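Figure S7 source data.
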Amino acid sequence: MKEIDWSNLPFGYMRTDYNVRCYYRDGKWGELELCSEETLNIHMAATCLHYGQEAFEGLKAFRGKDGKIRIFRPEANAERLQSTCNGILMPELPTELFCEAVRKVVKANERFIPPYESGASLYIRPLLIGIGAQVGVHPAKEYLFVVFVTPVGPYFKGGFATNSYVIIRQYDRAAPLGTGIYKVGGNYAASLRANKMAHDAGYACEFYLDAKEKKYIDECGAANFFGIKNNTYVTPLSSSILPSITNRSLMQLAEDMGLKVERRPIPEEELATFEEAGACGTAAVISPIERIDDLENQKSYVIAKDGKPGPISEKLYHKLRAIQYGDEPDPYGWVTVID
Ligand code: PLP
Ligand code: COI
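Tokens for the predicted 2-OXO-4-methylpentanoic acid complex:
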């Protein structure tokens, strides 16, 4: 194997040794299969290709100082996938089968888990697709669940460093009663133009307001938003954002640090009042926000005035990472340890 430069990994795909697959046929899930093929051979009329019967997840495994492998909150991802399955009429995958598939693929690709010192991690990508053929708009009768892994570095430039975002009003990623709360590929297709506009203009990512009124904060690209002020952690309550497991974990850690936690609609103008803010997610971890620009209204909300991450974001970041890498106790049983 070519030497891997663990400390300079991008957030991208690298071929690993194995993926795990499981088929749903005749109304039931089959056995987990270990596979070394990178490609899928599926019917051209598969529902995932035509009608978007596709769901995915994202979670990470970490190598600790003690050499042990830790997977962060796989049960929570299993539950979110079940919710997505309900949302687009796919059969739910049982939590135990999901977690077993994740453990199996991580263990089989152990040599790709970045070393502790690198600060990198192994990204785990579960995928569930309708593979049965349909021409009318109906759910498939057959499904395939696949999990692959790839070692990754930071999603946003600089890792734990501030970045700037831009409010995009021309495109919505999800409608109020649409699929925004599910992790389906269609939401990401809907985000590609906004994402390109933001990147072309030199921003880290696009920033969404609610689709109906364009008044409240929704999400920062593929990450949730949080703001901090007056010793309070504030995060949006919205029917069109993905329920982030990282955000849920940070709300708990913030409460443990003595912060108040508020989940409520956040009007755009309130951005001017935050002492700190961040984008959070599995890939993003915490990406502190320097500035959010609203170009149409010629407004710029400068949050990190000195361009540096704020002290509470920093504390939350280190606490989360310490639990993930096993440096500190895991009081909520978030971590699955594999020897
Ligand atoms: N929002 C969107 C749209 C995402 O794609 C993700 C990534 O999964 C998140 C938020 C963050 O969620 P999580 O913390 O569960 O990774
Ligand atoms: C994640 O944080 O796991 C994501 O899904 C982000 C993105 C690569 C889709």
